[in-house]
Amino acid sequence: MDLSEEKVVNAVKADSQAARAGIAVGDKVVTVNDTPLAADEKLSEVIAGVSVGEEVRFGLLSKAGDTEGDDDAYDAYDTYAEMKA
Fold first, then answer.
1. Partner of 78 at 20 to 30 A CA spacing, among 35, 37, 49, 56?
2. Residue 78: CA atoms inside 13 Å, Cβ hemisphere, count?
């Protein structure tokens, strides 16, 4: 999973844990293990504190259900994806 500085998913490798968890390009990561990410916080630094084999829960804002065609609008609901570190 590749993220922009704004914590938006740029790429998801096929058959990766992220893909199996339902994370998609364009999703925005807003929480890790139910803790909100600060604007200046890097996801890589947060994940570095997770033990190998520990489950990680990502709170996402998804554009998947955008019915108005507004590329800048995220759905009003959170989506969650769980993976192991």
1. 49
2. 12
pTM above the 0.85 mark? Answer: no
| Exposed/middle/buried for residue 57 (C-beta within 10 Å: 0-12, 13-18, 19+) | middle
- pLDDT block averages, 10 residues each, the chain of length 85: 79 89 87 87 84 86 62 56 65
Residue 60 CB neighbours (<10 A): 25
Biggest distance spanned by C-alpha atoms of the chain: 40
The distance of Cα 46 from the centroid of its chain, to the nearest Å, equals: 13
- What residue ranges define each of the domains in the chain, with the CATH number in brackets? 2-67+75-84 (2.30.42.10)
